[in-house]
Amino acid sequence: MNWLPIESLADLKKAIENSNKDKTKAVLIFKHSVRCSISSTAKFRLQSFWENDDNFPAYYLDLIKYREISNQVAIDFNVRHESPQVLVIKNGKCIFNASHLSISVKDILASVKN
Questions:
Q1: How many Å separate Cα 36 from the centre of its chain?
Q2: With b meaning 16 or more CB within 10 Å and e meaning fewer, what string describes 56-71?
Q3: How many domains would you assign to the chain?
Q4: CATH of the domain at 40
């Protein structure tokens, strides 16, 4: 999986801007806790089944190290903070989110086909 790191609010802004591009299906933001075994399992499942697609970039946010950015994600997209959590962003709006073991590549891909 070609993770694009989110390590600053500018990186988050860039991810949101990328979700507005015509050629971009959407962007994925994965909020990961390096201290949580469920988060590690979710990350492993994503990496195992994700097919890299330049038109669907995947961003990675270490929410322990960058808690302020994780909080901003919750505010910007009006979603409850969860860990682990994935958000699918299209045209600057969250069109899908899932957490814990509900994170599934199949569901993520289905969300951009609607």
A1: 17
A2: bbbbbbbbeebeebbe
A3: 1
A4: 3.40.30.10
Query: How far, in Å, CA of 21 to CA of 83, rounded?
Result: 28
d(CA 108, CA 50): 10
Residue 67 phi, psi (nearest 5): -60, -40
Mean pLDDT of 97-114: 92
Nearest to 51 by CA among 108, 98, 113: 108
Only one residue has tokens 């961003």, namely 59
pLDDT digits (tens, 9 = 90+) for 15-58: 999 999 988 999 999 999 999 999 999 999 999 999 888 899 99
Structure tokens at 10: 């500018």
Whole-model pTM? 0.94
3 state SS of 60: strand
Q: Coil, strand, or helix at residue 5? A: strand
Domain containing 15 equals 3-113
